[in-house]
Amino acid sequence: MPRMALGVAYDGSSWQGWQTQTGGRTVQDRLESALGQFLAQPVGTICAGRTDTGVHGLGQVVHIDTAVQRRMESWVRGLNALLPDSIAVQWAQAVPDTFHARFSAVSRTYLYLVRNSRVRSPMLHGRAGWVYHALDLASMREAARFLVGEHDFSCFRSSQCQAASPVRTLQALDIQRYGDFFLFTFKANAFLHHMVRNLMGALLYVGQGRQAPAWMEALLAQRDRRLAAPTFAPDGLYLAKVDYPAEFGLPVLPADKALFSHLGFYPAGC
């Protein structure tokens, strides 16, 4: 049966995460409902990575199997006409049956956007995290060096995590400052449940001077979630990009460009 890949973006603020639930208030439920209307038959989706309540998607990738034929433009415009304003298909492409949205992915990139200001902005509610205390960029970058590479990330793992192993390879962790905004980029082969939000909590502790950068190395060695910082809010977290082998020819957009394009503004210095 022919296979289609779809690129999906969504504002996660009003949804209970990606994965289907009984109440139907998830992105997967709403997308599959639209697909059922569009194709006149029920269809299931496989995604690149499940996101939690309040987490956004810029570069989520899903695949479906269906014998129904539609023009590529119709996949985008037709589905978007059936989706709520907070979810939109960005592109559609036929792929071979060897493609799998989850298992073919070689890396996933998450972005976390933080506004560092004495006063919160109502315009950025749900779109960016907010930190009141001043953040030190150099300290956070020093702490980030301890996290890159293959590690047991038990101290940054949710108690509800169902992954068989806590070992992951964090391929890159970059932190940039644009005026009042800090942009954190996390790239890994895969992530544990709440891993990015837990890493953010620890990095922000370091940025505020509550812990030294070397604390990060100690946390990795101790492998005890109770010793790390609290889980940070989901507001500014985005699944920004999923990378696949070039043979599949899927659209590629730099993660930061995707974020600022969707937000509709470019922070000073970007």
TrEMBL record:
All residue ranges annotated as the Pseudouridine synthase I TruA alpha/beta domain in the record: 9-103, 143-245
EC top class named in words: isomerase
Entry keyword Isomerase: yes
CDD domains: PseudoU_synth_EcTruA
The organism's place on the tree of life at top rank: Bacteria
Annotated positions binding substrate: 110
Assigned keywords, A-Z: Isomerase, tRNA processing
The protein's assembly and partners: Homodimer.
Record family assignment: Belongs to the tRNA pseudouridine synthase TruA family.
UniProt-listed HAMAP family: TruA
Stated name of the protein: tRNA pseudouridine synthase A
